[in-house]
Each structure stands twice: as C-alpha cells, then as structure tokens.
Amino acid sequence: xSRRTITGFSNPTVKFVRSLRDKKHRKRExxxxxxxxxxxxxxxxxxxLPEILLMAxxxxxxxxxxxxxxxxxxxxxxxxxxxxxILAKVTGKDNPQAVAGVFxxxxxxxxxxxxxxxxxxxxxxxxxDPGNLxxxxxxxxxxxxxxxxxxxxxxxxxxxxxxxxSMGAIFTQRLAQARWDEFLPWLRTGAGQLVAASLRDAVxxxxxxxxxxxxxxxxxxxxxxxxDYELACDLRVTMPMKGRADSLNAAxxxxxxxxxxxxxxxx
Amino acid sequence: xSRRTITGFSNPTVKFVRSLRDKKHRKRExxxxxxxxxxxxxxxxxxxLPEILLMAxxxxxxxxxxxxxxxxxxxxxxxxxxxxxILAKVTGKDNPQAVAGVFxxxxxxxxxxxxxxxxxxxxxxxxxDPGNLxxxxxxxxxxxxxxxxxxxxxxxxxxxxxxxxSMGAIFTQRLAQARWDEFLPWLRTGAGQLVAASLRDAVxxxxxxxxxxxxxxxxxxxxxxxxDYELACDLRVTMPMKGRADSLNAAxxxxxxxxxxxxxxxx
Lengths: 267, 267
Prior knowledge:
With 267 residues, chain A is α/β, with parallel strands linked by helices. Helices cover 37% and strands 21% of the residues of chain A. Chain A folds into two domains: 4-104, CATH 3.30.1330.30; 110-266, Alpha/beta knot. The first copy, chain A, contains eleven helices and twelve strands. Chain A has a seven-stranded parallel β-sheet, with helices on both faces. In chain A, strands 1-4-3-5-2 form a five-stranded mixed β-sheet, with helices on both faces. The longest helix of chain A is centred in the last third of the chain and has 17 residues, at 250-266. The radius of gyration of chain A is 20 Å and the shape is elongated. Chain A starts with a strand and ends with a helix. In chain A, 47% of the residues are buried. The mean pLDDT of chain A is 95. Chains A and B meet through α6 and α11 of A and α6 and α11 of B.
C-alpha cells in the first residue's frame, strides 16, 4: 500500500484537485471532487472508487477509511496525505472533512435510465441552484426513486455544492442529462406517467391517479416549467398555496409531490 | 417627493447598506437588506416600508415601484438612485434586482406568536443554512402556517440569503427566536401539539393523529434534534426512508411533514 505526502500549496496534484471546483476544468478533465468519509463510503457502495484519495494529516483513524485506502491503492489510485490547511484550500471549506476524493465522471445519457427498475423518478428542468439539485438527489434516494433526470440547462450535478447537498446520493442514484426534445420522445417509447405541479387544468395532488413508473417533474426556480412542457404532462396536479406566494422552493415542491406519489403507489 | 442620486462607491450610505451583509453590522444597526420589487411589495403588504429605498438607474418603470417610492418618501424615508454596478456591489449579486430596501428589524420574541391564529406552525432547531431557513419561511406561507419559531443557535433570519430564499415570507410570516428552555415552557402554557420526525417510538407520518395548533419541528442539518427534544414531543412520526440515507434535507422534511399535517387538519 503506497501513500505519498504533499506539503506545499503549489504541488501540481493540489492545483489539479483545486481546479475541479470550476466547471470549466471539471468538463475538460471529466473529474469531480467529493468530500467526507460518509460520501466516499457511499460512493464505494455504489461501485465507485476515487482515483485520488486525499486524507488530512492528524485525522482520526477509522476502519472504513483504512478499507477505502486499501481499495484505492489496490485499484492503482493515488493516496495522498496532506496538511489540513491545504485540504481546506482544495475543497474551499474552512472546516474541511478529513477526507476527499477525486472521481471520474460517468455517462449521464438517457440510456442510463432503466425506467422499469423503479416506480418513481424525479425530473428537474433548468434547475440552477446546486443545493436544490443535490437535495433532489437526496430526496430521490429517500423515496426509493430510481434517479434524477436533468432537462435542459441545469447546473452541473458534479459541482462541489451539488455533490455535498446530495449527501452521497449522487453515487447511488441514476443520473441523466438530456434536452427536452430528447427526453420526451424517449419517455414515449415506453410506459411512464409524466407529472408536474401546475395551475392549468390540474387536479388536487392528494388522491390524484398516479401510476408507476411515475416521472415527477419540477421546473426552473424562477420561471417554473414552460407551458408546453406542462401541457405535455400526463397528469397536472395542484398543491395548496394558502399564503401570498404562488410557489414553493423547487426541491421542496418535488419532495412533497414525490412523497405523495410514493404513498399512492404503495397503497 | 424627494430623491437623491449617489454615484460613488465611497458614499457613506452605500457603505452602510453594504455593511448590512455582515451579521455583526446587522445586529448593531438592527437593520437588514431585502432585494427585488416582489419582496419589497410583499413587505409593504405586510405593513413594512424600507427606511432606505435603493433604485438602479436605467430600471424599467413599474407602477408598484412608483407607489412604493411615494410611500417611502411620505414616511420620511430615504429614496436613492444609483448606478447598477454600485447596487450590485451593495447587494453582492452580479445581476442585482433593480430595487433594494433597508428595513428595520423587528421584535422576534415569543410574544409575537399568537398560537391560536393559525392551525400550524413551523419550528426549526439550530438551523445553520440560510437557504434552508428562508425556504422554511416560504413553506410556512404556502401551507398557511402562522410562522416560524427558531430554537437555539440558528442562522440569522435577516441575512441576505435567508431573506432572498424566503421569497418575501420573512415579511408576511410571524417569526420568533427563543432558547429551547424558553420555548418549551411557553408551549406548555397553552394548547399546542409538538411534532417531529423521529425514529424513537414513532408512528407513520401518514394518518398520524395531528391536532392544531400543531408545531412541526425539524432539527439541525447535521445532527438532527437532541434526544431530549424528541422525547418532549407530543407526537413522533416516521417518514419512509427507502434509500441508503436516513434523513432528508431539513427544509424538505419540514415541508413534507407540514403538507401532511395540513391535509390531516383539513380532512
């Protein structure tokens, strides 16, 4: 088991890892960064090992971390020890987790989605906030969804913030990215009920006739879904809005709807 | 109607407003910043006018903004026009809204909460993320809750990020801040069912015996609720967790639970 120590901010590996905080570099390198033993353990359970494992000096020993280090070494990965202040600089957090890993991105084509493998899928259209996107992945995990399909121009799901907010679900959920004009024809090649919250000709979200595989779609944080996307849905539902506002946070709306679908499909 | 124009970054009012992005300055000045015509209109509807109204040069005219300007002037407030790049600097956003306002903070003692005025209240304990806190306020508005009670060491609800995420609900929802050992005795002076998601001796969240006024409590993003807080609840409920993770984003959990309580109380 080989392990090397880095002590300088100007080390090329440190610079490389740090550069992955920028989308431009992530896209070029097809690599991304995830922090924390919990996430890295979820990644391993999901069949993904980091190519580079970064461990802070002075960290507490942990059997899961020892296992992970062995696995990364055995797979020919790079295991690095470094001072905690350099790790903080790399991950951009003042109080960094004691471990971080660099992972290869994977194919996020629609072919990744086996619609019959789960009763429920989440769909986000033009979602711009990485926290919301990560939260959708986390919710997808919780409701037993198969994964998350990103439509049109969404924020990068491999951004540090999205990965962090996913709490590991980025590694365990299926993830696809597609344009609407790819997604809709793909959806119509098989069974699949497309559902969205809407005010157009909609039925109450409680007790609506949900059917699996059910695709729960939420729209952009500011603009919501385009009208033609709503009209293409098989089911439009309304959720109570009792206050002054006419909408919920997008990740919240998706979650409330997804839990309702889950309860309906299981009853 | 008086209006003055500011053209320099070093103007004392610009510096003052900008300083309100720091909690320390907000606390000292008891003032905070809100952006956007929508939020400022909600504020006015909630009975709150900005003491300082900032308007970008070159903005589009809007009757609501004209009304607002008149109202601020009439109330003796300060109406300022300034270049959009200075407004961007003040609010810390690259694409700032065309208007922003400085508001006086208000009393957030528990005396603000008239529990009988709404069937449902949200409670957040040690919530650290301003986006989550703002989202809770927005959800509270949507479910027709009376407001949000912040327990223990929460992030500042008057932070720019929390105000932004609340989408105006900061102005229309009741807001209280209290220590747990103030809140619990206060709660017990009257009717009020304290509910939390929990794994301890809990019943399924669907069909649980909710009763208004119902106080839906969520815990800290990392640690959840302390055990004794959970044990003090009148009702502990479980939500399905079908994946690898054992929890949801705190604002999401609060929203799913709140919508369930709403449906239960209305049925």
